[in-house]
Backbone:
């Protein structure tokens, strides 16, 4: 490893480290505009010049482009180098409009900082400044090209890193322009990152424009909970309002960036209709009064109908503390354990995934970037977990082969092999690839179970075009040194998570190294699966209400009306209840129907933790104290001021604390009393769930703590002998309805964001050209889709990138799709009409 | 031999040929006299040109109307037609033979060895002059390493500008074990006024193809590309024909000459940004990306086109290769200077008598080029400077006329070889304006990637604009020097690193002109219009009235026997009068 000296300090770094990075490790921050650790060097701005005094490179050179080498002696303070940098900054300021007072970047602007640091203050050159016209770039990004210093970061991120083409560099020389060919909404769902990385104010955050300077905000580290990846973010709040989010660097999870769903999804927390007072039916009461009333009702039901007559639903968007307290609550009361999943199948799939993810197989997104072969099964990254698509793209840029087996019209911002097969065929398609690439001897070495799995798994995929394409893919897989399997859990069959894990084991045996990465539906699905022991589902609860055995229902941050497939049935069940108790921070439909309502706190208002889909326990601090944003209750004067003793709307509490208080009232004398301390709750969790034992409950925010994963305690290869051959079940008379996610419009919390609502696309039904021509339907026609409990009308889109025999539709906010009796849904062909 | 180089074609050489063929046929001479269309002869100033062999009689400035007389006299009566012969510039005598004309006498043709001698669209004529003999020798009897060694022995340095040793480049290209590899021929030639590469491609495309193929063999590549600017349709047309013919002859394609070596060549028309001539930018452009230089290392020989090992050389470099392998590296090295071997092609333009394409041994003095070959400065004016190396080359004064031109001597003089543009300037050229002109070019052609080049050059241009309009200050000269120094040291690629040369060299050698512009608000060469008074000096005025005729605005009053007077109100400062006046009476 090269050893060098920078400003008299010695440091040893890995080969390939740039001098600018080596210096950063010593705490010496060399000026930079174009260099970005996530994007690498280009050598455009020339402001990172340092003097190489001794060693293989001599003279003033760019520290971002020079590899650290043995024997280098570098000075960052050398007069010649400093003079050089000063000139560069002077040139950059030549054309700058000096509009800092009206620029949102002011206060955290790299250009501002370096201009001051470099000592440039007086303009020496006369002449006109270069000017440009700005563009409308859509809802998120404000454009002000005159501030551009041509560091190329935006284009490098947008096109090279993220793979979208509609924003780039136009023109040459001093006309070089960064923007789009014409005005319009940026097409990339990662567009907001250009705001973060632009070293000056060319791109600024539009929704939060002119709401404050950096130092005006309460800022803190937090988490994104708009999908299961759990990217790291920084919050900014002011005047009791969450104002903006930025990406926070995380080595293992999101790197330097986040997606636009994450960046602009948080507006539910400021939502004007957010319920902030406790209610008894429609009457607003104090939180204490509501708790007292609830306690009485609960005691009544318990006395009359026994402890099993009250059921509880938690959710996978709720934090670990809420989920754990709810379980603890039910156990202490002797109730049935709470339910976190809609259907038994969903519960089973997630639990299998959690059980099968072991220490050796689990990989982070950073490791995915290093894979040379990625096989995604039943996963639609851009729509389900956007940042995963970027991690995969980095692997692609390192020449990885990427294969997606999925019936949906999957789009990824890079070239990949898509094998569109029906949900039933995902497993046989996967095993056919694995068997093609793994020799039987590898399975043999792993024992009898493995061999049985290997021998009974279908080796061939019957559909000829797909089979032919698989030949080339298996060849690549055979040469792969680091294959990774990504497995979704939403549209796949119950056994698929196991088959994916077993496939990964075989690949590891054959290739020496392999990874496994599951996608889950929500931010804390993993936590819910870990904590809940029973495999109950909302479906079971509804049945019990219908049978009359359940009289009371308590929802903790859960809105089954969004996700339960049969709206009518759920509504009738809820109407039958003696007690319907809801705790939430969303103005949800369930909240409106509640007999008793309790306002809870959002992620941004409490100290909390979530477990992402790879079992990583992650912590978030509270960004601000909560309460109704001042802008919503003031008359709009300047400055924004409303003076009161209390915090209006400040009654919300963490759901787990409300639960603790409730429990302490209803508990019979002698039963355990709950404390309101988070540490106490966590010691309970660690005691009850040894898997959490290594998680520190420290104040710092550890990034790389995974729960102790399965570690091979599970039975491996359970699906041996169970995988059917592919392509058999296809009935020509029906189409299977697959419901998927869209980046914008399907994820619960973010659908409350008024900005994301503006970029949502209208929901539509996807169909393959083959099926469409059989039905005589044309692209963009409006069609009616019959479901068990009614029909849906929408536009038809015919796409050739999806599986025949399947129709695909998003679980879209704008679509009342909850008319389904049970999964899977098969629609008779003839019934889809214009 | 009728020249069909671009220069001659534009003066009507194709019509000339048609008329000639018709005339010969009418006179029943069609079987005895063969009309051959050749690539650029080089002496463009005298076009359209025709050379009659076997004697090698050189006819200049012919029109179709001259043809009947010429055919009558020369072909029927066997008398060279005096009035179409070339007249020597100094001793006013007719020089009938091409080889005796001074313009040709001092040249040594290597890269241009076939110029004016073969029909570029006929491979047989190339083969008849030892074409493809080198390739055949290489494939049948030489190992790739031996080829590289021979090129190294020759001391050939790249003709694209930087003068990188070609053998060394090939050796690196061979060293990397990643396949496929590529050979690229750089025919972008973005320098304004340069037409060396164009002429080679138009006059002798096979020599370039042969050189590329030999390089392919040496580095173990199987695909070559010629990147030609799209503004060269004739070059592209002839390359296409040449490639087709070579394929038909088994000189390209699979199993060349039965040796088992496969190689093919494709043509890529480039969209013509100057910076696309830079090697890494060119490769991006070939890949369909934005043409912008990238960081080296890795060098292109390790990761070039599509990130594969790639050897990129200039057109002229490749054209030099076949003779080296046929006659040996020693033979090539016998000409030239210590550090620069062989010859160099220059496009000689500007205010010399003989404008054209020339090839001279490395180490030839500027004096010889300008005065012997170029025939001295035209219009009885004084030599003032010579601009060498394209838009970012330098302007050298008369005191450096005895400089022996090679890569290193130019470097020492603050100039550079560039691709070989030579612009001679007489005393009616303003050096400040010249510097401004070239800087303006570079400002527009900068790719915009790095700050010094994008912003710094623009600042220099602004300052130059101020000076040429009389608003400069003495500090501006220091500022220009400082800026130039910083831009040179801090730019990313060759464009920015050399673009300040015109300014720096003119300050170095013609500082007095800058001072005249600034201190006296005067442009000594009367070029910078805002500094011209547009006043007739009655002392100097010879009362000839030429200026009055020249003025498009009727702003000049003149009566016989009185000095002319310019009405400044009406004057639009077009300089027509200045150009018209033979007595420099207008200031
Ligand atoms: C701005 C710029 C423009 C260039 N233009 C050309 C060109 O038009 N033709 C050319 O052959 N080389 C050009 N070059 C030089 C090439 O980068 C490269 O060095 C050369 O083609 C290599 O071939 P050689 O070794 O045979 O000289 C240019 C370089 C720069 C920096
Ligand atoms: S990928 Fe998921 S966790 Fe990451 S920012 Fe986007 S929505 Fe949030
Ligand atoms: S020196 Fe000029 S042309 Fe070269 S990379 Fe920089 S901006 Fe582009
Ligand atoms: S940071 Fe090194 S050139 Fe911009």
Residues:
């Amino acid at each position: 490893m090269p050893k060098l000296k920078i400003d008299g300090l010695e440091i040893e770094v890995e080969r390939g480290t740039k001098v600018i990075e080596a210096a950063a490790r010593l705490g010496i921050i060399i000026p930079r505009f174009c260099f970005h650790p996530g994007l690498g060097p280009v050598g455009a701005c020339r402001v990172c010049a340092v003097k190489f005094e001794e060693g293989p490179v001599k003279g003033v050179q760019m520290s971002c482009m020079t590899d650290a080498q043995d024997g280098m002696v570098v000075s960052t303070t050398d007069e010649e180098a400093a003079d050089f940098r000063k000139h560069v900054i002077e040139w950059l300021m030549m054309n700058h409009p000096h509009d800092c007072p009206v620029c949102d970047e002011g206060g955290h602007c790299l250009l501002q900082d370096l201009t001051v640091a470099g000592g440039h203050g007086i303009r020496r050159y006369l002449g006109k400044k270069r000017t440009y016209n700005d563009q409308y770039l859509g809802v998120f990004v404000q454009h002000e090209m005159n501030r551009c210093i041509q560091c190329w970061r935006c284009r490098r991120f947008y096109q090279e890193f993220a793979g979208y083409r509609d924003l780039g560099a136009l023109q040459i020389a001093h006309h070089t322009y960064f923007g789009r060919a014409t005005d319009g909404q940026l097409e990339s769902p990662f567009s907001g990152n250009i705001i973060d990385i632009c070293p000056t104010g060319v791109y600024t955050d539009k929704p939060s424009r002119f709401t404050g300077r950096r130092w005006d905000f309460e800022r803190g580290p937090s988490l994104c909970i708009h999908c299961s990846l759990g990217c790291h973010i920084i919050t900014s709040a002011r005047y009791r309002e969450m104002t903006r989010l930025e990406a926070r660097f995380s080595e293992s999870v999101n790197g330097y960036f986040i997606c636009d769903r994450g960046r602009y999804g948080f507006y539910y927390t400021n939502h004007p209709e957010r319920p902030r007072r406790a209610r008894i039916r429609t009457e607003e009461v104090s939180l204490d009064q509501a708790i007292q009333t609830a306690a009485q009702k609960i005691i009544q039901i318990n006395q009359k109908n026994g402890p099993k007559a009250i059921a509880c639903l938690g959710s996978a968007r709720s934090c670990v503390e809420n989920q754990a307290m709810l379980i603890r609550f039910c156990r202490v009361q002797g109730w049935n354990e709470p339910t976190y999943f809609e259907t038994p199948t969903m519960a089973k799939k997630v639990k299998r995934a959690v059980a099968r993810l072991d220490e050796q197989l689990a990989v982070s997104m950073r490791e995915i970037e290093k894979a040379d072969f990625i096989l995604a099964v039943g996963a639609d990254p851009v729509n389900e977990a956007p940042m995963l698509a970027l991690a995969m793209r980095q692997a692609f840029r390192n020449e990885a082969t990427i294969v997606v087996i999925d019936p949906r019209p999957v789009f990824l911002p890079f070239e990949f092999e898509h094998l569109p097969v029906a949900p039933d065929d995902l497993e046989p398609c996967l095993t056919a690839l694995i068997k093609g690439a793994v020799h039987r001897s590898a399975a043999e070495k792993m024992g009898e179970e493995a061999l049985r799995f290997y021998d009974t798994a279908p080796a061939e995929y019957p559909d000829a075009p797909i089979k032919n394409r698989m030949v080339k893919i298996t060849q690549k897989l055979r040469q792969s040194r680091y294959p990774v399997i990504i497995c979704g859990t939403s549209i796949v069959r119950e056994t698929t998570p196991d088959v994916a894990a077993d496939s990964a084991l075989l690949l590891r045996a054959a290739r020496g190294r392999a990874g496994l990465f599951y996608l889950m539906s929500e931010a804390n699905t993993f936590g819910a699966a870990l904590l809940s022991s029973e495999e109950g589902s909302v479906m079971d609860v509804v049945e019990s209400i219908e049978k009359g055995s359940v009289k009371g229902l308590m929802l903790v941050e859960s809105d089954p009306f969004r996700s339960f497939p049969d709206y009518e049935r759920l509504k009738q069940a809820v109407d039958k209840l003696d007690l319907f108790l809801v705790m939430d921070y969303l103005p949800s439909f369930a909240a409106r129907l509640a007999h008793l309502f309790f306002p809870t706190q959002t992620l941004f208002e409490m100290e909390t933790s979530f477990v992402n889909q790879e079992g990583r326990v992650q912590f978030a601090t509270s960004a601000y104290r909560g309460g109704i944003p001042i802008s919503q209750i003031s008359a709009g004067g300047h400055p924004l001021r409303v003076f009161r003793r209390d915090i209006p709307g400040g009654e919300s509490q963490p759901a787990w604390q409300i639960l603790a208080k409730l429990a302490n009232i209803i508990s019979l004398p002698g039963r355990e009393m709950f404390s309101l301390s988070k540490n106490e709750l966590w010691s309970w969790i660690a005691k009850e769930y040894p898997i959490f034992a290594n998680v520190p409950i420290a104040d710092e925010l550890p990034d790389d703590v995974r729960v102790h994963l399965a570690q091979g305690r599970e039975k491996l290869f359970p699906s041996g002998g169970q995988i059917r051959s592919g392509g058999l079940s296809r009935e020509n008379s029906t189409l299977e309805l697959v419901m998927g996610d869209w980046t914008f419009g399907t994820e619960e919390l973010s659908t409350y964001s008024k900005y994301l609502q503006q970029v949502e696309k209208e929901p539509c039904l996807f169909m393959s050209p083959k099926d469409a021509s059989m039905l005589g339907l044309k692209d963009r026609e409006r069609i009616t889709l019959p479901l068990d409990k009614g029909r849906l009308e929408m536009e038809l889109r015919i796409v050739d990138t999806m599986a025949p025999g399947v129709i695909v539709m998003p679980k879209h906010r704008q679509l009342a799709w909850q008319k389904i009796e049970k999964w899977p849904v098969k629609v008779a062909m003839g019934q889809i009409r214009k | 031999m009728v020249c069909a180089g671009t220069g001659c074609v534009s003066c009507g050489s194709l019509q000339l040929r048609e008329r000639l063929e018709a005339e010969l046929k009418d006179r029943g001479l069609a079987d005895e006299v063969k009309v051959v269309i050749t690539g650029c002869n080089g002496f463009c100033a005298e076009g359209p040109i025709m050379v009659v062999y076997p004697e090698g009689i050189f006819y200049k400035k012919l029109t179709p109307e001259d043809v009947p007389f010429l055919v009558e006299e020369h072909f029927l009566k066997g008398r060279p037609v005096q009035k179409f012969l070339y007249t020597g510039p100094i001793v006013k005598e007719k020089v009938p033979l091409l080889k005796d004309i001074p313009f040709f006498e001092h040249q040594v043709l290597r890269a241009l060895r076939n110029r004016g001698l073969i029909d570029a669209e006929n491979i047989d004529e190339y083969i008849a002059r030892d074409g493809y003999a080198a390739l055949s020798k290489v494939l049948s009897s030489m190992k790739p390493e031996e080829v590289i060694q021979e090129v190294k022995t020759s001391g050939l340095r790249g003709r694209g500008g930087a003068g990188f040793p070609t053998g060394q480049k090939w050796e690196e290209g061979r060293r990397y074990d990643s396949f496929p590899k590529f050979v690229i021929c750089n025919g972008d030639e973005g320098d304004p006024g340069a037409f060396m590469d164009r002429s080679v491609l138009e006059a002798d495309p096979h020599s370039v193809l042969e050189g590329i193929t030999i390089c392919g063999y040496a580095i173990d590549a199987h695909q070559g590309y010629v990147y030609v600017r799209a503004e060269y349709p004739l070059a592209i047309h002839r390359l296409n024909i040449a490639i087709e013919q070579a394929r038909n002859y088994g000189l390209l394609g699979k199993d060349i000459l039965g040796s088992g070596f496969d190689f093919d060549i494709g043509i890529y028309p480039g969209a013509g940004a100057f910076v696309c001539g830079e090697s890494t930018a060119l490769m991006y452009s070939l890949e369909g990306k934005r043409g912008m230089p990238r960081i080296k290392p890795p060098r292109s020989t390790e990761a070039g086109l599509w990130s594969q090992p790639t050897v990129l050389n200039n057109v002229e470099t490749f054209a030099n290769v076949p003779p080296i392998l046929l006659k040996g590296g020693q033979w090539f090295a016998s000409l030239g200077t210590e550090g620069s071997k062989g010859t160099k092609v220059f496009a000689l333009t500007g205010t010399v008598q003989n404008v054209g394409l020339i090839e001279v041994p490395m180490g030839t003095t500027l004096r010889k080029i300008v005065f012997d070959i170029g025939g001295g400065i035209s219009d009885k004016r004084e030599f003032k400077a010579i601009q060498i190396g394209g838009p970012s080359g330098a302007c050298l004064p008369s005191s450096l006329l005895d400089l022996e031109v090679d890569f290193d001597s130019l470097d020492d003089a603050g100039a550079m070889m560039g691709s070989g543009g030579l612009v001679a300037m007489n005393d009616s050229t303003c050096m400040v304006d010249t510097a401004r002109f070239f800087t303006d070019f570079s400002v527009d052609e900068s790719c915009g990637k790095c700050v010094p080049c994008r912003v710094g050059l623009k600042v220099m241009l602004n300052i130059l604009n101020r000076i040429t309009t009389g608003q400069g200050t003495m500090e501006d000269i220091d500022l220009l020097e400082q800026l130039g120094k910083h831009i040179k040291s801090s730019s990313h690629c060759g464009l920015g690193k050399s673009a300040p040369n015109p300014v720096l060299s003119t300050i170095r050698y013609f500082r007095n002109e800058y001072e005249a512009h600034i201190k006296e608000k005067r442009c000594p060469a009367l070029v910078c219009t805002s500094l011209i008074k547009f006043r007739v000096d009655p002392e100097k005025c010879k009362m000839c009235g030429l200026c009055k005729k020249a003025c498009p605005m009727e702003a000049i009053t003149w009566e016989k026997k009185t000095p002319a007077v310019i009405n400044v109100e009406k004057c639009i400062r077009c300089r027509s009068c200045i150009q018209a006046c033979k007595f420099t009476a207008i200031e």
Observations:
- Chain B has five domains: 2-105, 123-333, 343-426, 431-519, 532-587.
- The radius of gyration of chain B is 26 Å.
